[in-house]
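quick one, 116 residues, struct below
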Amino acid sequence: MVKPQQSSEVNASKIEQPGPISVLPHFGSRRVVRTVRRSQLREIVPLSDTTIYEMEQRGEFPRRFNLTPRCVVWDLGEVEAWIQERRNASSTGSIELAPGPDVRLRMTRPVKSDRG
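---
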């Protein structure tokens, strides 16, 4: 009867150790840009399309760019950096919060000033 060879010994001797990952020649030293489309951006940033557009116009949000005439994307690295920037500003208290509504100016359910 023939003894079966142990597969781990055979496979270990045949497996070559992977070398360093080669850089594609057309990328060179440039960084690869990951992009996100509008639907993916909505999952990352919980703001409306109008708010994002207005913030882009004021320079407060990363600008979108066109990959094709019908495909608009944002640089994921810029969006993540913007989120981190906002987190840091929020923790230091440098973001001014919007004032609460003045309920005394309501027309439909005015606040009663006399409690009696």
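The CA atoms of residues 35 and 76 lie 5 Å apart.
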